[in-house]
């Protein structure tokens, strides 16, 4: 079962021709699976919770589109393996999406260091997000990126609470200029609980 796998290796990668033949079906399957791994938080933020399958698909898509061979594969594995949950965490790509470029620019300048204000609330207990540090996501001029990669690391008791359907669980953005929260649905919690393995 791929949900139990925690790293993609070169040996896991499908030959280009195989992926090309299976691409349509694989994309449809991952799109369906992602529905329960997506949580909208307020009008502009979405938490996309990643796992082995989403990263496996992402790497194959990049290789299919760019055709960069072994050199590209090494870069993709380096970029996407860190986003696979390691059994005690949830990992999310957090995106702030506004179509209008002028409004988007102003909004991203208003939420400086938003990556320091993301957490999962499990029955009132906050699991604080830890942003990936590969690239500085907030620039010197205060403008933050529209995309952040965040780890939420849980203790064993917090995982048990997450799995208890009587305990409310929320995804939260707690920035002074963007403070929103969203309850995780039972379907989302069931899907994400599989990341704790």
Would you write up a description of this structure?
The protein is α+β, with helices and mostly antiparallel strands and 197 residues long. It has one domain. Helices cover 37% and strands 25% of the residues. It is built from six helices and eight strands, in the order αββααβαβββαββα. Strands 1-2-3-6-5-4-7-8 form an eight-stranded antiparallel sheet.
Record keyword descriptors for this entry:
197 residues, eight-stranded antiparallel beta sheet, 6 helices, 25% strand
Unreliably modeled segments: none
Strand content: 25-35%
In sequence order, what are the helices and strands, one letter per element? HEEHHEHEEEHEEH
> Structural class, judged by helices and strands?
alpha+beta
Largest sheet, order of strands side by side? 1-2-3-6-5-4-7-8
General form: globular
The main sheet comes to: 8 strands, antiparallel
Binned, the helix content reads 25-40%
Put simply, the count of helices is: 6
Q: Give Rg in angstroms.
A: 17 Å
Query: Mean pLDDT across all residues, rounded?
Result: 93
Structurally, the number of domains stands at 1
In total, how many beta strands? 8
Oligomer kind: single chain
Termini Cα gap: 11 Å
Task: Give the helices and strands, then pairings.
Elements: H1 16-34, E1 38-41, E2 45-50, H2 52-66, H3 69-80, E3 89-96, H4 101-110, E4 118-122, E5 125-131, E6 147-153, H5 156-163, E7 169-175, E8 178-183, H6 186-193
Antiparallel strand pairs: 1-2, 2-3, 3-6, 4-5, 4-7, 5-6, 7-8
């Amino acid at each position: 079962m791929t949900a139990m796998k925690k790293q993609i290796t070169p040996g896991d990668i499908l030959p280009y021709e195989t992926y090309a033949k299976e691409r349509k079906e694989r994309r449809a399957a991952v799109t369906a699976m992602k529905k329960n791994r997506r949580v909208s938080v307020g009008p502009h933020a979405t938490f996309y919770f990643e796992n082995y399958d989403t990263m496996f698909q992402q790497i194959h898509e990049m290789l299919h589109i760019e055709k960069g061979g072994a050199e590209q594969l090494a870069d993709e594995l380096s970029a996407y393996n860190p986003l696979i949950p390691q059994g005690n965490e949830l990992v999310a790509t957090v995106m702030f999406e506004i179509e209008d470029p002028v409004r988007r620019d102003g909004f991203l300048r208003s939420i400086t260091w938003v990556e320091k204000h993301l957490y999962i609330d499990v029955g009132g207990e906050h699991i604080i997000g830890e942003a990936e540090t590969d690239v500085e996501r907030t620039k010197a001029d205060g403008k933050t990126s529209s995309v952040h990669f965040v780890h939420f690391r849980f203790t064993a008791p917090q995982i048990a609470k997450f799995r208890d359907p009587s305990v409310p669980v929320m995804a939260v953005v707690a920035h002074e200029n963007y403070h929103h929260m969203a309850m995780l649905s039972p379907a989302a919690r069931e899907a994400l609980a599989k990341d704790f393995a």
